[in-house]
Amino acid sequence: MNAPVQYGPRAAALAAYLWHGQFLSRDRAAAALGEMFGCAPSPGVIAAMTAKVAGIIAPAIDAIVKALIAADVAHFDETGFRVAGKLAWVHRGRRDHPERRPPQQAAKKTARPGNPDARPRR
C-alpha cells in the first residue's frame, strides 16, 4: 500500500493494550493487529500511538496518583473469578480498608463463599 494510513483512537488504544497490557513486543502487537484486522502498523507507529494514548490519559493517571498519595490508607487487591470456565482477574485499588471503616459499616458482613451467615452485598 502506498497511500497514507490513519489509525483511529480505538486502534491506538488496542495497540497500546497489546503492547503494555498484554506485554507483547511491538513487532508481535503489529502482527496481531494485522492478523485480526488486516492492517499491520509498523512498530514505530505503535510506539507513536501509545505515546499519544499516554498523553490523553495522563490527567486521569495524575489524579489517581494524587488521590492515592493523599489517602490515609491505600489497599490493593487482586481477585480471581471464572468467566466461561476460564480464570480471569480483577485488580482494584481503594482509598479505605475494610477494617478501617466506621464501626457501623465495619459491623456489616458481606456475602462471601463459605460465609453462610453473611448478609448479601448491596
Can you describe this structure?
This protein is α+β, with helices and mostly antiparallel strands and 122 residues long. It folds into two domains: 62 residues, no CATH class; 51 residues, no CATH class. The chain is built from four helices and two strands, in the order H-H-H-E-E-H. Strand 1 and strand 2 form a beta hairpin. Helix 1 crosses helix 2 and helix 1 crosses helix 3.
Shape: flat
What share of the residues lie within helices?
40-55%
Number of helices: 4
What is the ordering of alpha helices and beta strands?
HHHEEH
**What does the main sheet amount to?**
2 strands, antiparallel
C-alpha termini separation: 55 Å
Strand order of the largest sheet: 1-2
In what range is the share of β-strand residues? 5-15%
Low-pLDDT sequence parts:
106-112, 115-122
Describe this structure in a few short sentences.
This protein has 122 residues and is of the alpha+beta class. The chain has helices at 9-21, 26-37, 43-70, 103-106, and strands at 75-83, 86-94.
Lay out the secondary structure.
Layout: H1 9-21, H2 26-37, H3 43-70, E1 75-83, E2 86-94, H4 103-106
Antiparallel strand pairs: 1-2
Question: What key attributes describe this structure?
Answer:
122 residues, alpha+beta, 2 domains, two-stranded antiparallel ribbon, 4 helices, 47% helix, 15% strand, disordered C terminus
